[in-house]
Design a protein that fits this description.
The chain is mainly α. The protein has three helices and no strands. The longest helix has 11 residues.
Length: 67
């Protein structure tokens, strides 16, 4: 499953100065390469919507993880 937020593709977004170093890393490192990564994903993988995925998954065969 994939989710994309518009900010994930905005390499010109303003940088928030008061973020922790870890949060800055997660938020801003690699932004200028994100479009290339998306194009590669779209070329390399087939995507379907969640309704179609639910129809083809055999939920009896999915391993359950207890938390």
């Amino acid at each position: 499953m994939s989710y994309f937020h518009p900010r994930d593709f905005d390499c010109k977004q303003p940088m928030i100065k008061d973020l922790s170093i870890v949060r800055k890393f997660k938020s801003y490192v690699g932004l200028k390469y994100c479009e290339n990564k998306l194009v590669k994903w779209l070329r390399d993988f087939d995507f379907i919507d969640i309704t179609e995925a639910e129809k083809i998954i055999d939920w009896n065969q999915v391993r359950k993880i207890k938390i």
